[in-house]
Amino acid sequence: MGLRVECYAGHRGEQEPRAFWLGERRLVVNAIVDRWISPGTRHFRCAADDGDTYILRHDEATGEWDIAAFRRGQE
User: Fold this and answer.
1) What is the DSSP letter of 51?
2) Given CA atoms 56, 16, 43, 38 in this order, what sign does their dihedral have?
3) pLDDT per position as a tens digit, 64-73
4) Are the CB atoms for 47 and 30 separated by under 8 Å?
5) For the residues 9-15, what does the mean pLDDT come to?
6) At residue 56, what are phi and psi to the nearest 5 degrees?
7) Cα(75)–Cα(59) distance, rounded to whole angstroms?
8) Which comes out higher in pLDDT, residue 15 or 23?
9) Cα–Cα distance for residue pair 29/54, rounded to 1 Å
10) Cα gap 1→23, rounded to integer Å
């Protein structure tokens, strides 16, 4: 099952996550901390408004998003 992600397409048309949904909860991406490309996928390390960090992966062939990694914020 894919992850529901709200995106913004910049001047080059590449999608960047702005918010994503975990179940019924909407998380806003406060900052894209890092980004990289691997064959067929784009990865975004995102600082979310819940204080946690997520790596969101976008499959360019299917358009699907998923969470590749998660790190709980400092408490």
Assistant:
1) S
2) positive
3) 999 999 999 7
4) yes
5) 68
6) -100, 135
7) 32
8) 23
9) 9
10) 12
